[in-house]
């Protein structure tokens, strides 16, 4: 849990930059703001403190998402383990179900995060003025009802599933390709070691960021709006106004945020596999 809080504090400025880039509509003929210019604009507002606007929503998000995900996974695992160790397929299903439950639990905090991080770039009469995540939650329910808590849930779920699928799938693909092929020009042959895991996971992170970006941008826009809105409507109006490139807004901060995460995840996974094999060798 403490690790989750540290993670929230470290990644918050990146999340803030990403949401701002995703929700500022492009003006035709004008250059799209880059990651650096959005960061600079944010700091110019109120100094470095404004990089942490909406931090309480990040913390609430970590708590609700991580707590439900880890808690329900442990619960399912212990139920599955009643008659002997469960198969890895069952554990994978449990992990996916837990991820889904975590996503639902984290959705309200995601809405607050999107709104609070981009509040100061909205026109004053469209601002939400949430002072912290808890009072924001109360205001959200008061003005939009309990249904308001699930705004953007569809795109959030699509994003989570795409994220997992594309990461795992492309990691395996890159890894097996590098094991079978030499790198051209430098004639370098990878072996199954840490260097390969790093390269394959960096590439997998790139693929995952790109694949998830459209769902992520739509999610941010749905959550940031307070009126009635549906994903298809937001998609078509944004496409008409800004062209297909809007679907990849905020790619850079999303990649920076996901990159280290992905690398850590796979390097850890490989070490785990190795440890497993030493403990339980296959004959
Ligand atoms: C994604 O994968 C991780 C690790 O395998 C798992 O813990 C998580 O629950 C999954 N999430 C979804 C939404 O499938
Ligand atoms: C937020 O504050 C601004 C003035 O700073 C005001 O114009 C706006 O109506 C407020 N929004 C809400 C939802 O209270």
TrEMBL record:
<keyword id="KW-0813">Transport</keyword>
<dbReference type="InterPro" id="IPR023395">
    <property type="entry name" value="MCP_dom_sf"/>
</dbReference>
<dbReference type="InterPro" id="IPR018108">
    <property type="entry name" value="MCP_transmembrane"/>
</dbReference>
<dbReference type="GO" id="GO:0016020">
    <property type="term" value="C:membrane"/>
</dbReference>
<keyword id="KW-0677">Repeat</keyword>
<keyword id="KW-0472">Membrane</keyword>
<feature type="repeat" description="Solcar">
    <location>
        <begin position="86"/>
        <end position="177"/>
    </location>
</feature>
<feature type="repeat" description="Solcar">
    <location>
        <begin position="1"/>
        <end position="79"/>
    </location>
</feature>
<dbReference type="InterPro" id="IPR050391">
    <property type="entry name" value="Mito_Metabolite_Transporter"/>
</dbReference>
<comment type="similarity">
    <text>Belongs to the mitochondrial carrier (TC 2.A.29) family.</text>
</comment>
<keyword id="KW-1133">Transmembrane helix</keyword>
<dbReference type="Pfam" id="PF00153">
    <property type="entry name" value="Mito_carr"/>
</dbReference>
<keyword id="KW-0812">Transmembrane</keyword>
<feature type="repeat" description="Solcar">
    <location>
        <begin position="192"/>
        <end position="275"/>
    </location>
</feature>
<protein>
    <submittedName>
        <fullName>Mitochondrial carrier</fullName>
    </submittedName>
</protein>
């Amino acid at each position: 849990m403490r690790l989750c809080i540290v993670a929230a504090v470290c990644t918050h400025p990146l999340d803030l930059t990403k949401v701002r880039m995703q929700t500022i509509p492009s003006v035709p003929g004008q250059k799209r703001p880059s990651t650096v210019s959005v960061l600079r604009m944010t700091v110019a507002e109120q100094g470095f403190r404004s990089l942490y606007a909406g931090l309480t929503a990040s913390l609430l998000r970590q708590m609700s998402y991580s707590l439900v995900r880890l808690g329900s996974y442990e619960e399912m695992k212990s139920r599955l383990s009643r008659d002997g160790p469960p198969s890895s397929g069952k554990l994978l299903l449990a992990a996916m179900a837990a991820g889904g439950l975590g996503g639902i639990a984290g959705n309200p905090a995601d809405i607050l995060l999107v709104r609070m991080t981009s509040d100061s770039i909205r026109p004053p009469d469209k601002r939400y003025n949430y002072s912290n995540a808890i009072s924001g939650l109360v205001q959200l329910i008061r003005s939009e009802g309990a249904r308001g808590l699930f705004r953007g849930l569809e795109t959030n779920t699509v994003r989570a599933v795409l994220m997992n699928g594309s990461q795992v799938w492309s990691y395996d693909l890159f890894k097996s390709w590098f094991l079978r092929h030499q790198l051209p020009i430098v004639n370098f042959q990878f072996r199954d070691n840490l260097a390969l895991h790093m390269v394959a996971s960096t590439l997998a992170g790139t693929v995952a960021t790109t694949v998830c970006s459209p769902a992520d941008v739509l999610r941010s826009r749905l959550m940031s709006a307070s009126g009635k809105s549906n994903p298809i409507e937001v998609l078509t109006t944004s496409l008409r106004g800004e062209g297909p490139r809007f679907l990849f807004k905020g790619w850079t901060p999303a990649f920076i945020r996901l990159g280290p995460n992905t690398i850590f995840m796979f390097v850890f996974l490989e070490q785990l596999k190795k440890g497993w094999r030493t403990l339980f060798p296959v004959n």
